[in-house]
Structure formats: C-alpha cells, structure tokens
Amino acid sequence: MAGRFFGVEVRIHAFFLLLLAMGMAGAAMTNVNPMRMLGLWGLLLLAVVIREMARAIAAAWFGLELRGILLLPTGGLMSFSTLEATERAAEVKIQRRMAVVGPVASIGMGLLLAGLILSSAPGVELMARPWITPTHLVRSLVWVNILLGLVNLLPALPLDGGHALQVGGSDTKGTEGAPAGASPHLARLWGFGGGFSRWVAIGLIVSGILLSNAWYGLWLGIIGAFMLIGARMEGQGMLIQSDVDSVRMRDVMLTQFSTLSASDTLEDALQRAVHTLQDVFPVVRGGTLVGSVSRQNIVEALAADGNSYVQGVMTRSFQTAQPDDSLVKTLRRILGDQGAQLVPVMDGERIVGIVTPQNLSQSMGLLNQSRRMRRVES
Length: 378
Fold this sequence. Notes:
Strand order of the largest sheet: 1-2-3-4
C-alpha cells in the first residue's frame, strides 16, 4: 500500500516491484548504471500516478466515490465505495467518458513536458532513438507519458480503448469485451479463443521477443504481460458485479433462523443466542414482526440495566424485502440505513428468510463460487 490520499486508498501492485527487479537485472546484463534504471522505473510510476490522478478527478466530477486505486504498469484499476457508484461506473456512457481521460492526460502531459524541455533546453534530441532508455532520462520522461497514453488506446481490456468499446455485464460465453452494438458474429470474433484482449497481449509479447532492439522488446513484452494480468483481475471484478445484478433475495437469504418474542426477558434471549451463530434476531409479537435485536444489544442492555424485556431494547425501525427483490435493492437498504442490521424477507405476513450484512458476505462468496463452477462445467 502506498498510502491514503483524500480518503482514497492507493496501492502499488507487486508486479511493479517485479518490473523493477527485471529492470535491474537487464541493467546488470547491459552494463547500465542501476541508479538510472531505478530512475526510469520511477518515471513510469510517476506517469501512471499522473494518469490516475486525472482519472480520479474525472471520477469525482462524474459523482463516482472512489474507495481505492491499484496501480499497474499499464494504468490503474479503480474500486468504488458504494454499490451505486460501482453500478454507475459500469454504465457504457461513463466508461467511454472515463476511457478518454487517461490517454488525454498521459499524452497531454508528455506534450507539455516536451514543450517545456525544448523551450528551456533546445539541445535535447527528443526524437532520437531509443525513445525510452535509462541512458537518457529526460527524453524518456516525455515518451513514457506519451506511449502510456498511446498504449491505452489499444482496443483491449483493461486498457482504455477496450473500455471505450466494451459492453458491460454480458454473460455470453466467448463475447467478453465485445464492441457496443456489435452483431453476434462480430461479438464471437471479438471473443475468439478466450477474448480479443488476450490476443492483443500475446501479440505484444511475441513481438517483444522477436524485436532485435532489446529495450523496445522488453517494453512490448512488459505491456503484453500486464495486459493479461490486468484483464484477468478486472474480469473477475466484472464477473462478481454481473452476478450481483442477477441475484435475488431468495438466493442469499437465511431460511434457518431463530426469532425472539417481544415479551421474552433479556436473560432468556441471551440463553437462546448462545445456541446459535445468528447475530441479529427478528422480534415478533403474536406472529407479527415488530422489530429486531442484535446479540450485542442484548449483552449491553443486561450489563447496563440488568434484566428486562426484549421489547425495551429492540429496534423498531426496519425495512422488509420480498423473495424476488434484487440483491442490489437490498444492498442499498443495508448500506444506506445506519440502523439496518437485518432485512426480513416476507412472503405476505410470514417471515421466510432474513439477510444481514454478515451472512450476505458469506452467501455471495459461496454463490459466486458456485456460479463459476457451473460456467466451467458448461
């Protein structure tokens, strides 16, 4: 983890350190000063940070509340603080707008630096090759930014060009990352052999191996490798998000649960709580749901005021759901209401299940694993 800035957690992926190790090994084999290689690595990190700063500002502009950014050598992967922000970020319109910001920021920074360098040091040959090399860090400072922007224009995930063409949330096998509005035939071609993004990444790696220029080959290989890594990481996140969109309350609710009576004493309620893993209990009076109470509330009330009745400490404000309600709707209720420790699932006047933040996390993990296994089997 690099730190927390303006409430956003910024982390550097371990592959950034692997890249540094590879660079140092390459410097040793080519008799390059290792400090210059460290400087070149720092320039790449700086270029990625500049790009992600611009994207973070754009995310705030579009009303997307960021939770964290994971920095990769080809850019960054964003995570969001709320489900609503995650859903909004997955909209095609927002993805296309965000896809413009990264390349414009990187290329614009490169051109700005080029102008400043040429105006202050006209003797610097910015067009001399190789453009990116540890032996000429001033020239590399310009081209690292420009090439980072150009690479992200490639139409492959997780690059910006891939997001500009992507249709989010498709579960169709073999069509991941297909262009918006694509015909089924084009979608199948886009997904040929497991995804167009993988073919672009593999092509870059092979080109890097075949190139006679060692530095260009190294950079192409690195870009291809991290495209594969980033696409897989982002693909997993999108899979989880698409699963959330299709899950209903009946898929994740607890059907084996205990209830408490409003007339139960706290000591009796605590005794019953000892024999269950349930953290929050629906409270009923004559079969009618009247509130909820948590194990922690019972313990605290007993310690503070002694034995009394459940109705004196229960929460009377609660929201219910129906079995066919979407999980997204329920999550919004739980996250949006500070007192929503439990959401009862009702079939008419009868409680058929409950959902708590604790069981929801476990249920979603098991449900996602089950769905992935079914996809593999099919």
